[in-house]
Design goal:
With 307 residues, the protein is an alpha/beta fold. The protein is 57% helix and 11% strand.
């Protein structure tokens, strides 16, 4: 079958075809062999891999199972026709899964790759409450988060360097108990052999070079890609000068951020605050309930003339 060069950043359809081809090559299957496994022809596989045919959902699920994609293809398929993600982000996350090293900076909220499912669901519930997306679209977004995370657990998955602005640790998403479990998850990531996690504290804000989300991807062919976004859309760039500037700034960011040990100590301290605050809320609520019970008993005694 004829194989054309396909740029996965050009469109979600191209991203799906590129991802399918990469998984098939990793499995050492020909297009005809994969077609036999998923009950499609090799010619049909070729059309999809070259970005010329939109596959049905059943194909994505079958190919995922045959190629050990762990939901990668099905997740990418969601991006083809009814994505609610920021424009440009679907193409980025396909490349992210194939990178050797992913470096991220985030302010305000824990990024998807480090979120618990509970935290991710609470984030999307906020969009639903504001009327930005439907409940079904929120479920899709959470599923995309989980699939992105699964790629890092693969033996050949990327390594992750993550710098969190301190605001990510204080912004309450889903309530105190959700935050406690999210911070526990960050502490577990600190000990993960493929993860470097650091916190940029508030008191070093003037040394922070970025204000928006930033992603830097080191690809298997040594190409460096950069990604950032605004609330309206995402921007993926291969421009060497731009990526070189961002990489230098990121290196300085890591130098100025807390060490992993100090970052973990800060996370633990903030976690204790959420835990104690939640316990105080429970005690306050219990006291209020007891006061209401005592008030009701007093009223009954008055009605009976017992006072």
């Amino acid at each position: 079958m004829r194989i054309n060069t396909l740029d996965p950043s050009s469109s979600p359809l191209a991203a799906f075809g590129w991802q399918l081809r990469e998984l098939r090559k990793r499995a050492r299957l020909s297009q005809d062999e994969l077609g036999a496994l998923v009950r499609y022809t090799g010619a049909y596989i070729s059309l999809i891999e070259n970005g010329k045919r939109v596959p049905p959902a059943g194909f994505a699920r079958a190919a995922d199972q045959a190629l050990g994609g762990m939901g990668t293809l099905e997740s990418t398929w969601f991006l083809l026709g009814h994505t609610t993600l920021v424009e440009g982000f679907p193409e980025y996350i396909v490349l992210e899964a194939k990178a050797r090293l992913v470096r991220l900076f985030k302010a305000g909220m824990v990024p998807g790759l480090a979120q618990t499912e509970e935290y991710a669901s609470a984030v999307e519930a906020g969009y639903v409450a504001r009327g930005s997306i439907t409940a079904e679209q929120a479920e899709e977004r959470v599923r995309v988060v989980l699939v992105r995370q699964a790629s890092f657990e693969q033996p050949d998955g990327p390594r992750l360097h993550l710098v969190l602005d301190e605001s990510c640790l204080h912004t309450v998403i889903g309530g105190p108990q959700v935050m406690v479990r999210q911070l526990d998850h960050l502490l577990a990531l600190v000990d993960h052999p493929k993860v470097v996690l650091q916190v940029m504290p508030f008191d070093r804000g003037t040394l922070r070079p970025f204000t928006h989300f930033l992603g830097l991807l080191s690809m298997p062919d040594h190409e460096l890609l950069g990604y950032t976004e605004t609330p309206q859309r995402g921007y993926l760039t291969r421009d060497p000068d731009t990526v070189a500037t961002w990489t230098t700034d990121y290196d300085l960011l890591q130098v100025e951020a807390l060490s992993q040990a100090d970052s973990a100590a800060m996370i633990r301290k903030i976690r204790e605050g959420f835990q104690h605050g939640d316990q105080s809320q429970h005690r306050g609520a219990a006291r209020r309930r007891m006061a209401q019970v005592q008030l009701q008993r007093g009223r009954r005694r008055v009605r009976r003339g017992d006072a």
